[in-house]
Write a structure and sequence with these properties.
The structure is a homodimer.
Chain A: H1 15-24, H2 31-35, H3 38-57, H4 90-102, H5 124-136, H6 147-163, E1 177-181, H7 184-203, E2 211-216, H8 221-229, E3 237-240, H9 252-264, E4 268-275, H10 287-296, E5 300-304, E6 329-333, H11 334-337, E7 345-349, H12 352-359, H13 393-428, E8 432-436, E9 442-447, H14 456-472, E10 481-485, E11 488-494, H15 502-530
Parallel strand pairs in A: 2-3, 2-4, 4-5, 5-6
Antiparallel strand pairs in A: 1-7, 6-7, 8-9, 9-11, 10-11
Helix pairs in contact in A: 5-13, 6-13, 7-8, 7-12, 9-10, 13-15, 14-15
Modified residues (N6-(pyridoxal phosphate)lysine) (chains A, B): 336
InterPro entries (chains A, B): Aromatic_deC (IPR010977), PyrdxlP-dep_de-COase (IPR002129), PyrdxlP-dep_Trfase (IPR015424), PyrdxlP-dep_Trfase_major (IPR015421), PyrdxlP-dep_Trfase_small (IPR015422)
Keywords (chains A, B): Decarboxylase, Lyase, Pyridoxal phosphate
Chain lengths: 531, 531
């Protein structure tokens, strides 16, 4: 990549001139004309739309993951912001910079060949919803600060909750309620702080060091991060081991034993984080049974359905959330697999008053609206880590409004179908195995271990690590990620990009097979040489 | 407002049909065609751009704050999401809904007559930067997950830090470094957790209940919220009183006395949050002296410059950050007054390793890039509350790239000039007083208290509260907010909307004068009747 010499000019401005102009009180040009002029916005905005549309149309011409080395962009850019842009049309020049220098250095999450991590599924409605939100740029931290924004968030979290068949006790229509945050980390942290404050009110705030949180060894790091932030003692996060014979789901018996042991030791069970669709293998914890155990110990139950929560939109997956009527809080990322673009995490709680007690504020300078007096008004600033917040409801409303619940079901089912097809292809090739039965659109697979004399299980991890590296290094190939569960390294093929079609999945499998054949061929040569 | 009956149709779908279709494995239509088709995106995107441009052009036709009652939108919308949208062009219909039903219920923060709270200043570059970010939709939680996004964030936080004349020790080029978060609440929380973990490593983690944080009675609630979340004992947040004769700045002597008293009582001073530009009156704490006190007690110093940090772009304000070379962390909201649209909070830290120690993770399933091995790579997931994050650097880079540092100075100075003009008008009217000397673009003022026999200071607060209500109720008038400091209620006129011009400020003052004359006239009648 050539150094983007024109990306902006290094020149820190003539401070003296500015100072002189200030002293002279010389009139500056009307600043609004250039910064937020309707006609300029229209002209440049159409450029951006065409830019993004062209990006989607050309998506397949980019390798999913760039071949760049650390520092490639930092070293190419000037050390300082420009004093004044050098070009007449700086915005058009900047768009060229994005095309020539930034896009080639991105990992293209919207590529139909992006199968890594979990999807960040985009849709036209959500992407344009973000554009609309940014254009309108309101800050709905209280009802009064933008009434329609707050009310739309209340409406759309109820809509989504019903579409996912959540119990009404978690929705406004049933006495609970939902909010839209950035990520699951925030959602879990908010729930944990609400739980912690309730518990400390009971047992006395000096005992914060006695509180214990519970999860499985498959739970997302978000729980540990939230526990750390919330001041839970580092030794008091119980990561209960899971096993392959239970599909890596958290065992209620093991949870019960852990809670009992802690209670016996004078500690206080505080918080359970169960998962529907774990990060590594999309395992599903048995929500009803786990909640019963937690309730028996007075602990708060949270369900993290960051990825697989989207699947609940389909009736055939509803049973996975059986028991959700017993949870205290539930979160899922509509930006992962439900077309809502990053970021959009929905959090529902059974008792909003506990959230407000943990996170709320009352201050004189916050405008109260006379109209709001005495009404059942939500001030969302008291439901989250932050006060300032974006109007995320608009894009989620657009997604539900424009595609409908059936449209979302079509979307989820298309990916499930493609993943099933991938899984069948893996099973049909005897060199490979599916390590964990697929439930959603994630397939975890690996090359079977070589014979014991050639390293067996021990060699299998290195072999599959090499396979992933080779697959990801294939120009115009798929991009996948890995998991290591119970000591077993596996490749993860997470179908979920909106642009992915069956041909991309078939082609991805062909690349995996080809790279595997090369690897196994090399091994055979090496082994025969050694022999 | 008419009920938006067409906003979407209540119909929860025919589950049986869907189930049957699944069983039959009937092919659904290619879902990508409708959800992220380049041509459809282009067509609908141009509609959105025109919609937003029209909104800016028509901005003055909206009252800044809507006359709506709680529930106005909730009761008008269907209880469920549509099963399928009823219209042929659902997106165009949705945009009509936004125009007819949502926009009229918003508080228009971009109105040139919005003078409440602090500004949420928009610009074309940032609004379109958000559109671009949403379109590209990458998730740069690690360097490998989108190298150019991480590197651009490193570049642009250095650019911004230099533009604000921050010490190099807070920038990557000087061994520190910056990141872009959502809000100041997150920034303060991240700094506080880093400080807490460092301190607990020293004194033992059992002593979390002994940690004390310090601020003034003017510090934003964000600090108290962060302290609550981080598990600091509720009794251990010292809100040190400020006084009008020190312009409501935190006194280093008072801070020292508070820290000493706590230390003498066996508690542990942990964290100071100093402010440049407080929420109520834009007071500026003396950073250098406060940091010296904090350092003497081994406490972490954070500076919250959420609003006024933007002013540091102008040399004439640099002295306000004197002493910033002694802080451990510094944050400001580029989305408030620096044209970066919500949300964009920059946090810089002197020792990034402490952030990572407090918030970091290492997990097998996170893809490491071979290219990154052994390099000085930032994985921003370890710098914040969240793992998933948006590519915020793109819009901030566009703002700096397209307007340049001088363009930002012009923008800030234009608002400072307008606020100075407003202040002069207040001072020229003997019925009013400026309560706190203006430093930036915020004017705090009130009607002078009536004579003692008519209530004096006590009546003044009610009088000014009524004045604010009357001003805000004026159709096509300005929208302001209030503060109450040292028992004194005052109106706040915060100039900062990008579209605000001098005529809007002049007109706002005329409305204030007119409403005041009416109020004072009514009072005179009442008083003469009573007499």
């Amino acid at each position: 990549m050539a150094p983007p010499a024109q990306m902006c000019h290094v020149n820190n401005g003539d401070l003296n001139a500015a100072a002189v102009r200030m002293v002279m009180k010389e009139a500056a040009p009307p600043h609004s004309a250039s910064l937020l002029d309707a006609d300029e916005f229209r002209r440049q905005g159409h450029q951006v739309i065409d830019f993004v549309a062209d990006y989607y149309a050309d998506m397949c011409s980019y390798p999913v993951h760039p071949s760049v080395t650390p520092g490639f962009l930092r070293s190419a850019l000037p050390k300082d912001a420009p004093s004044r842009p050098a070009e007449h049309d700086a915005f058009a020049a900047a768009l060229r910079d994005v095309r020539d220098h930034i896009l080639p250095g991105l990992t293209h999450w919207q590529s139909p060949r992006h199968f890594a991590h979990f999807p960040a599924s985009s849709s036209t409605a959500a992407a344009l919803g973000e554009a609309l939100t940014a254009g309108i740029n309101v800050v709905p931290f209280t009802w009064a600060a933008s009434p329609a924004a707050t009310e739309l968030e209340m409406v759309v979290t109820d809509w989504l909750g019903k579409a996912l068949h959540l119990p009404e006790s978690l929705l406004f229509c049933g006495g609970g309620g939902g909010t839209l945050l950035g990520t699951s980390c925030e959602a879990i942290l908010c729930a944990l702080v609400a739980a912690r404050e309730r518990k400390l009110d009971e047992i006395g705030s000096k005992r914060i060091g006695d509180l214990v949180v519970y999860c499985s060894d498959q739970t997302h790091f978000a729980l540990r991060k939230a526990a750390r932030i919330a001041g839970i003692h580092r030794d008091n996060v119980r990561e209960i081991p899971t096993h392959r014979d239970r599909m890596f789901a958290l065992s209620p018996a093991d949870l019960g034993a852990a809670m009992r042991a802690d209670a016996d030791a004078g500690l206080v069970p505080l918080f359970l984080c169960a998962t529907i669709g774990t990060t590594q293998t999309a395992a599903v914890d048995p929500v009803r049974e786990l909640c019963a155990v937690a309730a028996a110990h007075g602990a708060w139950s949270h369900v993290d359905a960051a990825y697989a929560g989207s699947a609940l939109v389909c009736p055939e997956f509803h049973h996975l959330a059986d028991g959700a009527d017993a949870v205290d809080s539930f979160s899922m990322n509509a930006h992962k697999w439900l077309l809502a673009n990053t970021d959009c995490c929905a959090l529902w709680v059974r008792q909003p008053a506990l959230l407000v007690a943990g996170l709320g504020t009352e201050q004189e300078y916050i405008l109260k609206d006379a109209a709001a007096e005495g009404h059942d008004i939500v001030d969302y600033k008291d439901w989250s880590v932050t006060l300032t917040r974006r109007f995320r409801a608009l894009k989620l409303w657009l997604v539900l409004r424009c595609y409908g619940v059936e449209g979302l079901r079509d979307h989820v089912r298309a990916h499930v179908r493609m993943a099933a097809a991938f899984e069948e292809m893996v099973r049909a090739d005897e060199r490979f195995e599916v390590v964990v039965d697929r439930q959603f659109s994630l397939v975890c697979f690996r090359l079977r271990p070589p014979p014991e004399k050639l390293g067996g299980e021990k060699a299998a991890n290195e072999l599959n690590r090499s396979l992933l590296e080779e697959v990801n290094a294939t120009s115009s190939g798929p991009y996948m990620s890995s998991a290591k569960v119970g000591g077993t390294y596996m490749l993860r093929c997470a179908v979920g990009s909106t642009l992915t079609e069956e041909r991309h999945v078939t082609e991805a499998w062909r690349v995996v097979q080809d790279r595997a054949a090369e690897l196994l061929g090399k091994m055979e040569i090496t082994n025969s040489v050694v022999a």
